[in-house]
Amino acid sequence: MVIWTPAIVLGGIAALSAAGLGVAARIFRVDEDSRFRGVLGLLPGANCGGCGFAGCAACAEAIVRREVEPNACVLGQTETARAVASYLGMDLIESEPQVACRECRGGERAARKYDYHGFEDCRAAMLYFHGPISCDHGCLGLGTCVKVCRFGAIRMGDLGLPVFDPERCVGCGTCARSCPKGIISIISETTKILHWNRYTECLSPCRQGCPAQINIPKYVAHIKLGEYAEALLTIKESNPLPLSTGRVCPEPCNLACRRQIEDEPVAINYLKRFVADWEMGSGRRLHVPVAPDTGKRIAVVGGGPAGLSAAYFLRRLGHAVTIHERMPALGGMLRYGIPEYRLPKRILDWEIEGILALGIAARTGVALGGDFSCDDLRRQGFDAILLTVGAWRDRRLELRPAGRDPAGVVSATRYLGSFRGGDVAVRGHVVVVGGGNPAIDAARTSLRAGADRVTVVYRRGRDQMPANPAEVRAAEQEGVVFRFLTAPTRYVAESGRITGLAVQRMELDAADPVGRRRPVAVPDTEELLACDLVVEAVGQLPDLDFLNLPGMPPLRVTRWNTIEACEQTLQTEVPDIFTGGDCFTGPALVISAVAAGRYAARSIHYYVTTGAVPPIEERQTELISESLFDSIAGVSAKPRVHEPLVTLDDRLGTFKEVEGTIDEEDARYEAGRCLNCGTYCYDRDQELEAPAAGAESRA
Amino acid sequence: MRDIGRLVLVLSLIGVISAGTLAYVRAALDARIEHQEDLHVRGPALSRLFARPAPDLLANKLAFRAGGREYPVFYLDDGGQVDRLAVEAAGRGGYGGDVVVMIGLDLARRTLIGVEIVSHHETPGVGARIERESFRAQWTGLALDEPVALRSAGGDLDAISGATFSSRAMVDGTNQVIELLRDHADEIVELAAGGERPARAKGGS
Amino acid sequence: MTAVRALTHGFWRNLPPFRLVLGLCPALAITTAAEYGLGMGLAVTFVLVFSNALVSLLRRVIPDEVRIASFIVVIATLVVLVELAMKAYFYPLSRTLGIYVPLIVVNCIILGRAEAFASRNPVLVSAADGLGVGLGYTISLIVVGSLREILGAGTWFGRPVFGDGFEPFGFMVKAPGAFLCLGLLLGVMNAWSRRRGEIFVQT
Amino acid sequence: MDLLLLVIGAIFVNNVLLAQYLGNCPFCGVSKKLDTAAGMGLAVIFVAVLASVLTWVAHYFVLVPLDLEYLQTLVFVLLIAALVQLVEIFLKKKSQALYRSLGIYLPLITTNCAVLGIALLNIKHELDFATMLIYATSSAAGFALAIVLFAGVRERLLLSPVPPAMRGTAIALVTAGVMSLAFLGFAGMVE
Question: Among A338, A452, B169, C99, who pairs with B91 as Cys (CB 3.0-4.6 Å)?
Answer without folding.
Answer: B169
